[in-house]
Amino acid sequence: MTTRRMMNKLPEDVVIYILFRLPVKSLLRFKCTSKAWYTLILSDTFVKLHHNHATATKEEFILFIRTFREEPDLWKNVASFIYCDDNNDHNNLFPDLDLSHLTSSYCSIFGQLIGPCHGLIALSDSIIIIILNPSTRKYVVLPPSPFGCPKGYHRSIEGIGFGFDSIVNDYKVVRLSDVYWDPPTDYPGPREPKVDIYDLSIDSWRELSEVEFPSIYYLPCSEMYYKEAVHWFSHIDMDVMILCFDIITEIFRTMKIPGDCTFLEIPRYGLAILNECLTLISYPDPMCSDEPIEELIYIWIMKEYGESESWIKKYTIKPLPIESPLAIWKDHLLLLQSISGIILFSWDLNSNEVKEFELHGHLECMRAVIYKESLTTIPRVGEHSPQVQQF
Asked: Which PROSITE patterns does the UniProt entry name for this protein (predicted)?
């Protein structure tokens, strides 16, 4: 007796109970067995049940992006989809994916991964923006923002964000940029901040009016989506702050970093999620510190989100030869890029064990984001909307 015939003999609620515990790969195969299963598996209710179950489990995956030089003036971005077994040995979930849309004539040092948001992740090299569901292997390339700048001015993209507005039930992409007067021989200025927002449900860009935000302090591992807000680092009166943009209200706010961090000699910072808390990683700047491998790494967690007084120093890590942190996997594996810039390795926060991954890339161009499986579909409004594609 086939699996479908066996399942058909069960009550519908039992079938749903069984199905939403299955991995996405199996569900995508099962939805082709009948119209009833196709409708069920792709229904909003089932997608939410499956997402909630996946969120409650500890099964986490990594989307890892790295850059290679193909020719003297051509760079290629490659995505790897990784999972870890019970022995913490990593394996590829899918074959590596060449991201041709992000392949360009410059090195994607400013490339970012933002998310996950209901299983969707935004990839960007600051010019091209892609929305991707790594579980279903569906993606869409967003149309470019129509907002440029007048002749004689320069528009600099400072940050990209992505999140979900639960009030209007829509995904949004936010683009922060600065417009400068750009004469050929003079100092550019003054700065005029701009905020563009793309609403996926209506396939349209819009520009917020009269919005101010402080200068973005760009760092790897710094654009974080958490608690329906996107987070960056910023400079305010020579101090480093966490800048937040609320996806629902479309309002900026700031949070202070731990006070001790400001006394470290030439520190850099990263953002991550640890034990479901916003987490700050402070580490030595490999470009400025005389002996970066002699400096300690500190991990802080914010126990009460939004309360700067609730920062707690969780871990102090011995000096490591790193270029930057990338993410925290399974609440105990800190993923790091080596100071040579070409190796991904992990530091176990529980055992202090170091493990090297057989994954390599160009200096400063490694990015990683942690995600859980999801059936979430990428919205597409009509025939003129960007085409959702399969990889």
From this structure: FBOX
For residues 45 and 24, what is the distance between their CA atoms, to the nearest angstrom? 15
Going from the C-alpha of 19 to that of each of 16, 22, 141, the distances in angstroms are 5, 5, 31
Residue 263 lies in a domain: yes
Q: Which domain holds residue 163?
A: 58-381
Residues 342 and 210 in one domain: yes
**Residues 107, 88 share a domain:** yes
pLDDT at 247 over 90: yes
Question: 13 by DSSP, 3-state: which?
Answer: helix
How many whole angstroms separate alpha carbon 325 and alpha carbon 220?
Answer: 8
CATH code of the domain in which 270 resides: 2.120.10.80
Q: What is the separation, in whole angstroms, between the first and last Cα of the chain? A: 34
pTM of the full predicted structure? 0.87
Buried/exposed 137-147: b ≥16 CB within 10 Å, e otherwise: bbbbbbeebee
Per the structure, how many domains does the chain have?
Answer: 2
Residue type, 262: T
State the average pLDDT over residues 249-261: 89
Rounded Cα–Cα distance for residues 12 and 40 (Å): 10
Cα–Cα distance measured from residue 193 to residue 235, given in angstroms and rounded to the nearest whole number: 14
